[in-house]
Amino acid sequence: MKTAILTDSTAYIPKQIREQYNIHMIPLSVIFGSETYQEEVEITAEEFFAEMKQHQELPTTSQPPVGEFVELFEALSKEYDAVISIHLSSGISGTYNGALTAGTMVEGIKVYPFDSEISCMVQGFYALEAAELAEDGAEPEKIMERLNEMKRSMRAYFMVDDLTNLQRGGRLSGAQALIGSLLQVKPILHFVDKVIVPFEKIRTKKKALNRVYELFHEDASQEIPMRAVIIHANRPDEVEGIKRDLEQKYPHVEFMISYFGPVIGTHLGEGAIGLGWYKK
C-alpha cells in the first residue's frame, strides 16, 4: 500500500523539507480587509508581519474549504492508496473536521485524519515522522499508531509579547488578557484539551523563557534522543542564539528553527517565542 502524507500550512514546515520528505500541504488563509492570501503560498511570514504594521484592524483567518480537500484527495488517489491527513488542533480550527468530512466524499483512496491537538512545527513533527514511516513502507494503521504514541511525550510552551491579539481573536478570554496587560505579565501558554490556555503568569520575558527552558530540561536531562524546535514570530536572530545555547547543553537533541506564520501569527502577534519537543 502506498501512503501519502498531508498536513496543513500551520505546521510551518519549510518548503525544502516538505519536498525532501514528500509531504503534501493544504493552505489556510489570512484576510486583510477584502484581500485574501493563502499562507505559505501567496504570503510569507515576513511579508505578513510587515503587512500587519499597515493595518489597525486585526486580520481574520480561514480554514481550507471542504471542496479543496476533496480535490486534493482525488488528485492523490491517482498515485496513492491512502493518505494520512495531519492537522492543527480541532479546538482552535475546523480544518481537521474539514479533512474528516472530505474523507467520506472521495473514492479510490482511504483517508486517515489525525488531530495533532497542537499547531506549528510541533504539528510538523507528526508529519515528518509519518513521512519517514511511509517511505519505509509502513501500513497507515501502523503510522497512526506511532502518531498517537508520540502524543504522550509531545510538549510545547510559548510566550507572547502582548495578549491583545489572542483576546481580540477569541483564542483567550478577555479577563485573562486584561489581567496580563495590567500587570505587564508575560504568560507562558500551552495547549490543554485542544485549546490554548495559560500555563503560568510570569512578570518578564527573560524569566518566562527561563521557565520554558526549565520545563524542557525536565525531559532533556533524561538523555533520551529527542527532537525539538524553537519557534518565533519575526525574531530570527534571537532564536538563532537560543538554538546555539541549547545545542551546546543537549547534544543528544536534534534542534530545528521554525516560525509562527500568518494564521497563527495573527493570534499570537509579533515577538512570540515557543519551544516544542518530543522523545524519539
From TrEMBL:
Organism listed in the record: Bacillus weihaiensis
Keywords tagged on the record: Lipid-binding
A Pfam short name: DegV
An annotated Gene Ontology molecular function: lipid binding
NCBIfam families, per database record: DegV
Keyword Transmembrane: no
Protein name: Fatty acid-binding protein DegV
Protein's UniProt keywords contain Acyltransferase: no
PROSITE patterns in UniProt: DEGV
